[in-house]
Model the fold of this input.
Amino acid sequence: MSLRRLLILAGVLLIVFLGMYSWNQSTHTLDDLSTDIGLEIGGNILEPVRSLQDTLGSFWTNYVDLVAVREENEALKAHVATLESRLLATSEDLAELKRLRMLLQIPVDKGVKTLGARVLSGQIGPNAVLESITINRGYATGGRPGTPLVSGRGLIGRVLRASAHSASVLLITDPSSNIAVYTQKSRAMGIMRGNGPNKPLLLDFVPRDEGVMMGELIVTSGLDGWYPKGLPVAKIVSVEPSNFTEFLAITAEPLVDLQHIEEVLLLEQTGSPPEVEENQAQPSQFVGPPRPTGRK
Amino acid sequence: MSSLVNVGFWLLFTVVGVIVEMLIPRIDAFVAGILVLLQERRYASLLWVLPLFVAIQEGLGTRMFGGSIVWYAVVILLFFVGERFFTTDTVPFVLAISAAYGCAFYGLHILMAPLQELAIDTGKLMDVAILQAVVIPVVWRICRYARRTETPKDE
Done:
């Protein structure tokens, strides 16, 4: 093949590719197709591997790593006692919260159902350019795109793409993750932005006169439409006036160790209207994350 | 190698490739397989293996569809360019082309990032590209060894 024909062929292929890329960018047809096929195949391969890993891990824990079990048991008993006392102490707070919610007519969020999921892998393959994980739930099993994910400590991210039984999750540390939040004590609103792995999150657009303090907890405001209100996201580690804008330069560290998550909870919208329960001492379903305590 | 064994081998390769990618984040474990297919001139196998690889990489990834197509096109193109000047079935060639693939991996990510307005950490990307260049010869060697032991007549 002559050089001229080769160049013409390369040019034609480039135009075809760019046309396909632009068409896909507007319709997402090929994205959906590849997600349905590729993510499903990948998930089906990864799930038994992860199960095998877990089995071997539990074997190790149960039969080999028994040396420290007695000490750990004692420590856990002490921890349970502490938690029980803390639970007793907070039951009054919960009752008060219940009364105040009823008083203010703020509906308890019964429109959210929690679903457990297992993390199959972190970033996988050369196209995993965003900070992400793969989980073993897809759109057929509760992991539809947009579904928020939490762990026991706080927010992890939201489902970005999903096949029938697997999904990719965008983590809050990715630079393309923007979350509407407010600070828990000073109630200053802002946008929480990811800054890459192992780097602090950035809280943007908080005016200088808001009185934000270090150590304050940042929770979702629910105004972005992606995340329910009140999910803990991060803890403020530095506050100073920005050198370039009229806002504060605030950094925060995520509450969840995103490098070492194994199980997550999906907050699936059920679509049922929120109600206020009047006769129950405690809400029977999920009403949001636990009340933040003075965690270190 | 019979067709059935060949299909079985590439399916197994795909499974192992996904596991390798799980263990070493962000690298492409399938490139070595494409290299082996090109060296063996098994273009018929390439016709079904390549779409499978593209589907898996695109499905598991978080980028817009298309990156894998360009990446594998460059992989094949570089092989044919190298074939004009060198004997392809040698270790020095594989080492050289792996280095070229590493450079191409880095360049393509830089080139494709603006299409999706992605922020690229060039330092981390360089690490991944180097790792990619290192992994290819290792996977290639294991792959060739596995196929050679089963198919002595092919050589």
User: Anything to note?
Assistant: Chain B has six helices and no strands.
